[in-house]
């Protein structure tokens, strides 16, 4: 019986990783379509494989019955389920009032449900450091190598797309910001998973990822990554290292050379944002667009009750999006708030925003406690700081890159937890 349990666990664990790998690359049609290689829709693929991934984790959890959840966390999960149900009912009411399709609610619920199940599943099914190794070999490296293959092929063939007047790398995940978010995540994951094996492969992986990150031209994610590096540098006291200053002698001139070489592209990007002579913002500037979007979303909160409880889950993702019957695109068109804090406010109100900050604070405190056992955890804490910064101008909470971040975060934390409580298994 014990052997069967181990075999079943290995089967579900491995299958879940492969299903997630497939889920990652259902995003590829966006890239293929963007560069004109084919005409393949991606939304149906994404939803089908997301559903398959959720089903696989639920089957594993229900049939293997290996849930190891403390009583306090059980109460939190039950409270979360009640909150989710309440905001689903509220969303149905909101969408009914607008005459909108309920599809938008289902899509967002599926995204949040996948993130919750990723956390529960991998916390319960990571039983040793060997399982973390499985994640690295079965999921992490194959996913990263395929991203390299597609992205570098696009660079080699100059397959870029005009985005806001600038040629930018679309990559395997569509929007340049999405590709940049994945690169930011994979760089941090590479550091966390390979920090104790800093051989030639480690440095090659980092350099290759940094090239793709900067090629995307995503200012938000590049700045977010610099926030991550700032915390890493301060924690490791780079300012006291001679190597840091030796590297600066090479890096700073290289950056200046790149800026000079790409001056036309940089000026073209800035010219889209504002008049480079008068510094006045253009009406088509993404900065102006974001401010208009924020104002439009805030205008939806027109009663005290809406400010308190929001409009229901999925509202900020669908209400101003074309393609949904009854959407408010005649007022404004926006695929989400481009600010996760505002997104939480619109969907869940001030009550939900308060819960969000309480949850973030609890997570940061937990990560801090684990750092005493394994200092590598601090990189995940700095990564969380960088995401909180990126959330100021992007929607990240319900994206696939967040699901992958949760996977690595939970799996690594579980191995550290085992080091403390069950050292024989770790």
Structure characterization notes:
It contains 17 helices and 2 strands. The longest helix has 32 residues. A two-stranded antiparallel ribbon has the order 1-2. By secondary structure, the chain is mainly alpha-helical.
Topology diagram in text:
Blueprint: H1 2-25, H2 28-34, H3 43-64, H4 71-98, H5 103-125, H6 129-156, E1 161-163, E2 166-168, H7 176-194, H8 200-215, H9 219-235, H10 242-261, H11 263-273, H12 286-298, H13 304-309, H14 315-318, H15 340-371, H16 377-390, H17 400-421
Helix pairs in contact: 1-3, 1-6, 3-5, 5-17, 6-17, 7-8, 7-9, 7-16, 7-17, 9-16, 15-16
Keywords for this entry:
426 residues; mainly alpha; WaaL-like; membrane; 1% strand; two-stranded antiparallel sheet; 2 strands; O-antigen_ligase-rel_domated; ligase
**Number of beta-strand segments:** 2
pLDDT < 50 stretches:
none
The helicity comes to over 70%
Tally the helices: what do you get? 17
Compute the average pLDDT: 84
Q: Quaternary status of these chains?
A: single chain
GO molecular function: ligase activity
GO cellular component, one term: membrane
Pfam families: Wzy_C (PF04932)
Protein name: O-antigen ligase family protein
């Amino acid at each position: 019986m014990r052997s069967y349990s181990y075999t079943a666990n290995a089967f579900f664990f491995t299958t879940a990783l492969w299903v997630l790998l497939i889920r990652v690359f259902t995003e590829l049609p966006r890239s293929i379509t963007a560069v004109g290689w084919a005409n393949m829709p991606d939304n149906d693929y994404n939803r089908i494989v997301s559903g398959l991934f959720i089903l696989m984790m639920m089957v594993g959890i229900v049939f293997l019955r290996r849930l190891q959840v403390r009583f306090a966390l059980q109460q939190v999960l039950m409270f979360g389920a009640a909150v989710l149900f309440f905001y689903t009912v509220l969303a149905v009411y909101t969408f009914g009032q607008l005459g909108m399709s309920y599809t938008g609610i289902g899509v967002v619920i599926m995204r949040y449900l996948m993130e919750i199940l990723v956390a529960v599943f991998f916390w319960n099914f990571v039983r040793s450091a060997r399982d973390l190794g499985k994640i690295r070999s079965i999921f992490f490296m194959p996913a990263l190598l395929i991203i390299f293959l597609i992205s570098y092929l696009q660079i080699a063939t100059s397959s870029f797309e005009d985005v806001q007047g600038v040629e930018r790398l679309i990559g395997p995940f569509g929007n340049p910001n999405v590709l940049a978010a994945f690169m930011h995540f994979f760089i941090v994951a590479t550091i966390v998973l390979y920090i104790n094996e800093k051989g030639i492969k480690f440095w090659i992986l980092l350099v290759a990822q940094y090239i793709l990150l900067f090629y995307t031209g995503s200012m938000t994610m590049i700045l977010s990554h610099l926030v991550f590096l700032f915390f890493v540098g301060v924690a490791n006291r780079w300012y006291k290292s001679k190597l840091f200053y030796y590297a600066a002698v090479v890096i700073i001139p290289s950056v200046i050379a790149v800026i000079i070489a790409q001056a036309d592209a940089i000026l073209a990007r800035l010219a889209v944002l504002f008049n480079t002579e008068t510094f006045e913002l253009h009406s088509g500037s993404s900065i102006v667009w974001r401010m208009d979007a924020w104002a439009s979303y805030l205008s939806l909160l027109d009663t005290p009750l809406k400010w308190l409880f929001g409009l229901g889950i999925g509202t900020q993702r669908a209400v101003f999006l074309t393609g949904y019957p009854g959407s408010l695109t005649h007022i404004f068109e926006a695929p989400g708030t481009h600010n996760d804090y505002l997104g939480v406010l619109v969907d869940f109100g001030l009550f939900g925003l308060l819960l969000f900050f309480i949850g973030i604070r609890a997570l940061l405190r937990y990560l801090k406690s684990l750092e005493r056992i394994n200092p590598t955890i601090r990189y995940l804490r700095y990564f969380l700081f960088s995401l909180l910064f990126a959330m100021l101008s992007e929607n990240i909470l319900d994206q696939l890159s967040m699901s992958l971040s949760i996977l690595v975060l939970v799996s690594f934390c579980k191995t550290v937890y085992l080091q403390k409580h069950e050292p024989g298994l770790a």
